[in-house]
Amino acid sequence: MAELHEPVTYRVADGVAHIELRRPDTANALDLSLARALLAAVGRARCDDGARAVLVTGAGKRFCAGGDVGSFAAAADPESYLHQLATEADAAMRALAELSKPVVAGVHGAAAGAGLALMLSCDRVVADTGTKFAFAYPGIGLTPDCGLSYLLPRAVGQQRALSFALDGAPLPATTALAWGLITELSDDALVRARELAAALAAGPARALGESRRLLRAAWEMDRAHAGAEEARIISEMAAGPEARALITRFATR
């Protein structure tokens, strides 16, 4: 188990790998240490046979406030620092999105900037009813990073994404749900997210994980490539013990 002072903790219980951001004093804002620790935790989840599903949460009062503005201001060369941070944080987000395991986010308090990209790299996003969602970048004179310009319009549509980015006003949780930015509201998002992750881990997790990977990867493919990749994966799955057992059970009902 990771120590509490580390920027990201990783632990596995009942088939669920719980990745938690642990910089609560900065609202879990991303600096280089957190970005690198997040990438390492996602790498552990990818290789961990005991992890059948993944849960992502943030410690403290907020899920993730985006980039750590204090670290930007303190950098000797802000341009180089921001380029490095954006690149390394994006690598962590992409690794999360590319996992062949289902991923649930439990979101509370606020998600802003790169925190939105982290959330949108997950498949099921449960938020507390009081959570606020903010684009945030223009307020400090910056532009999106961590793939948000790619992820956001695919989640909510181009015009809503533009409105959200340009208006500057945070979205309440009810609007985020109506737009498809999140998938569920709860009075206790962490408890509900744990329930969802446990249910996914208890199910046909390999099939669920490959399905989420295919659906996300298809944005990068043409129709023929998507079909070919589906054919490759479904044939591999059919040879595995999970599919064989479930197919036999279905055929003998």
Automatic annotation (TrEMBL):
SUPFAM superfamilies linked: ClpP/crotonase
Molecular-function GO term, any one: isomerase activity
Keyword tRNA processing among record annotations: no
Keywords for the protein's UniProt record, in alphabetical order: Isomerase
Presence of the UniProt keyword Isomerase in the record: yes
Alphabetized InterPro entries for the sequence: ClpP/crotonase-like_dom_sf, Enoyl-CoA_hydra/iso
PANTHER family the record matches: EG:BACN32G11.4 PROTEIN, ENOYL-COA HYDRATASE
Protein name: Enoyl-CoA hydratase/isomerase family protein
Organism: Georgenia ruanii
